Amino acid sequence: MIMPADDPREAIVSKNEERIRLSKSVPPAVSGGSPPDGTQTWITGRAGMEYRDLIPDRLDGRVIASHIRITKGGDVPDYVHYHKIRFQMIYCKSGSIRVVYEDHGAPFVLESGDCVLQPPEIRHRVLESSAGAEVIEVSSPAEHETWLEHEIELPTVDVNFDRDFSGQQFVRHVARDAKWTSTGSNSRVAETAIETATRGFGGVRLQKIDAHGTALVEPGDAFVFIYILSGAVLLDSKYPTLRPDDHIVIMDRSAPVLTALEDSEILEVRLSEI
């Protein structure tokens, strides 16, 4: 076991009946956060993947949003593992990553625009990656245990696409199959099945807004994370212009309006409680 995956400071190793817990004697002053100048640093974490925090304070440990990249192409030094979490989604921002999941058949490739929900404790593994592949990952709680799986091999012989994992189901959203629905003034939305799969706890959707069009961020959820994938967007008049790779967290259950200064696309992740 290691924890947290982005900057491990605690681990458990075992052999036969013996188990040893390892921990850093002095935790880092800033774990995955931002230095005083406001820049966001990259930290090498589990399996050689590089992480940077998108929410430096992690909302007091309730949520982590990570920008993750794999700089080298080819095989990834990963292993079959699982996370003790309440919510975890991964959006492929660029490149491609070959992955495999428990009870969900042969390995498949996550391509740019694809998204998955990893329900609690589903066994999975990253197999290969294109050079420079990047993903956006949102998880709750922020710090959670990652355990190596000793018994189950992937892919599993049995396939059960409807399997329940602690009240959630695995979701694979494929960008090329997405259905876009008009939602307002020159805007369209592509819903994933994540809200249904989590029984309303979490939701993920993509929005496209044409230049000078508007879209409403629906009110009511405790946590809304907005990440700009392309274009330029204004969020009411309280914030500066948001451009690609900019992001913002909304926690006041308000309903701000997004106005696109040019053709834009955003990723939106919502949690009903944190």
Give your account of this protein's structure.
By secondary structure, this protein is mainly β. The chain folds into two domains: 2-24 and 39-174, Jelly Rolls (Sandwich), CATH 2.60.120; 178-271, Jelly Rolls (Sandwich), CATH 2.60.120. It contains two helices and 25 strands. The strands form six sheets. A seven-stranded antiparallel beta sheet has the order 4-5-6-14-9-12-16. The chain is globular and about 65 Å long.
Write the layout of secondary structure elements.
Blueprint: E1 2-3, E2 10-15, E3 18-23, E4 43-44, E5 50-53, H1 58-61, E6 64-70, E7 74-75, E8 81-83, E9 87-94, E10 96-101, E11 108-111, E12 115-117, E13 124-129, E14 133-140, E15 146-148, E16 171-173, E17 181-184, E18 187-191, H2 194-197, E19 202-209, E20 214-216, E21 223-230, E22 233-235, E23 247-250, E24 257-260, E25 264-271
Antiparallel strand pairs: 1-2, 2-3, 4-5, 5-6, 6-14, 7-13, 8-15, 9-12, 9-14, 10-11, 10-13, 12-16, 17-18, 18-19, 19-25, 20-24, 21-23, 21-25, 22-24
Shape: globular
CATH class of the largest domain: Mainly Beta
Radius of gyration equals 19 Å
The quaternary organization reads as single chain
Let me know the average pLDDT: 90
First-residue to last-residue Cα separation: 24 Å
Give the CATH topology of the largest domain. Answer: Jelly Rolls
Q: What is the N-to-C order of secondary-structure elements (H for helix, E for strand)?
A: EEEEEHEEEEEEEEEEEEEHEEEEEEE
Strand order of the largest sheet: 4-5-6-14-9-12-16
User: pLDDT under 50 segments (min length 5)?
Assistant: 27-39
Total count of domains: 2
Supply the helix-strand structural class: mainly beta
> Could you state the CATH homologous superfamily of the largest domain?
Jelly Rolls
Relative helix content:
under 10%
Q: Helix segment count?
A: 2
